[in-house]
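Example (one chain per record):
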Amino acid sequence: MKSAQVTKIAFTVFGTLIIAQYLSFEICAVVGVLVFIGAIFFTAILRKKESLLPTILFSSALALGLICAFYNLNVKDVKALNGSTHIVEAHLLDEPEYTDEKVVYKMKADKLSGSDLSGFKFMVVSYADLGFCEFDKVTAEMTFYDTGLEDFYGENIYICANISTKSKPIIEQGDGGVYRYAVAARQAVRNTVSRYLNGDEGALITSMLIGDRSGLSDSAYSAVKGSGISHITVVSGLHLSILSWLIISVLRRLVRSRRIAAFVTIPFIFGLMALAGFTPSVIRAGITSMICFCGNAVYKRVYPLNSLGLAVLLQCIFNPFSVCSVSFLLTVFSTLGIILIEPKLRKWVMKLSICRFKLVRDLLLIALVTISAQLMSLPIAIITFGYVNPLAVITNVMTSTAVTLAVCFAAFGVLLCLTGALSFIGEVLLFISAICAKFILFVAEIMNKISFSQVDMSGRSTMLLCALISAVILLFFFVNSRRRIKIIALSAALAIELIVILPSFVLPSPVSLRVYGSESGSAVLICDGGRNILVGSADASYVAKRIANDIKGDGINKLDLIVLPSDCDKLSKGATTLLKHISTDQIMYSDQRIDLMTLDGVDRIGYANCEVELTDKVDLSVTDDGIILTVAKTRIFIPTEYTSSPKADIIIAPSEFIATTCDAKCVIMMGEETETANKANLLTMGGVQPYSLSNGKNAEIAVTDRGYNIEYENLY
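Predicted structure:
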């Protein structure tokens, strides 16, 4: 099979799998059969030179059949466990992941009581350290529940579980097989870096070497993410290219043979993939790199587009749900942009007179790589995150050299420190890498403070405009290209980008509810159709001020409406403080006893214990116990009294309210980490999924007619 054919098939399969995520599997099966019949028909009537359409149709039918078969064989029975309780014998696949106040254990089921199902992966999320170590064999009573996050599908994880605290789990030590060496190496890297480097500098070096960013403080990660360089904290093509270049450069000087050096580098790349935990992005980058090195060992020239296509095809065949991983999508499109766009831009830039200066030329080339990657992945980033960072190109140019030096010096430094004899040289190299890391964090912090570092692009019209602009620019680059394969790859990429954005216009847009909480109360910001409505404020001035700052940190400087649903007199103090820091057009209150006379220039609307339509999709009703927000079929309860719990899908409450059981599917708690974590563990016994929010953490709930999805993170 020709390499060009592989590329056509690869990107057709890739695009079809993305489309399939928005369809039911029954529809996928029917469409797959129709597409296959169409492929046979066009093969019969078209000449051999016109074989592009049959190839695309056969590839699409292959993708649809693949995902249907994969779902029925590997996913359907696992997702059917939702809500069931079993005695489970399982073993840990890797190290526990410590994120915020949670601990995540990725496990593989060996045996389930009352079921023949086994051999599937699942996650256990706990708010306390259960004492499990990597590869431990665990026997415990577990209740399974749906992940609610398709991003884990790329790792073959389709279900989560809570471990009951009624009986103590039985723990036996396991060996982990060959993979234990990768885990031991990862631990050695982490321990070595932490021994010589402290603080965020050491945590950043660790994340760049093994992808573990758990040590980064919230402020440091917020700066890195906000400045547009969060990709450096995840091991992907950038890191593999730096380390593989470092390895092959050393080998070329030792063996003096290009082919031998290329073949020897391949096992090192596989080791780096294992060191990073075989995430979807590092698998894509690793397969592409290994294909390139194999090609370099056999042929003199390797076409990167063919290598990327083959890597994408292999990963999609082994796991069609890889396209659910945002990191995988971003790394594929970014690499595609570098392959297709960067050479064209470079040809234009090299004609400029300023490129006579080497420093200027090098900086421009670095900028071109970043621009090319961002341009191709822009629609994916917008539909996923809802914003773009126009300063990311500048930040990447400023930090690219520092990132390269930090990775190189840190890698050599860790190796030398582990040898023992040359550890003093390793310490020096790690010290240099720490200086580079400090510079990266300094630049990220400065760029993140600039007011327009993040531009909100969550509106539908903005997303469509972005897709059209990127399509026009890309077509302008390649419409006259003589290479047919580039046109094919470009057309496929544009089609995929538009398809990813299309559902936001076809499907109802979700109502976004952002929860701003503290130990003494909560406020919920409703964002729907361009309207921003805040329900609740706070009974303390300092909490209301912080809520206002958090809202402004989300890019919202004015509210359309503030609703004070409680008859508590203290709420007027919080509202007064809130309005000193953020403006509004109207304020709605539930009881005339609330003193609002100080709120000059604001329209005041009074109501008492009645139902109010806040937006076209959100209704609010007030009871003696609290507020009920109804969005589509989802009921969200915000208590003002801590004595009862009406039936709801989601309860948002301060930690004083939460008892050991409640009639809800999930609970979002505010308060100190230790207190809320302890109560969260009690809630899991009742089959309730808890979300524990400490001070400074917020939650976001996306609600549609099909259900809701909760994501809690720093939103500012």
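Caption: The first strand starts at residue 85 and ends at 92.
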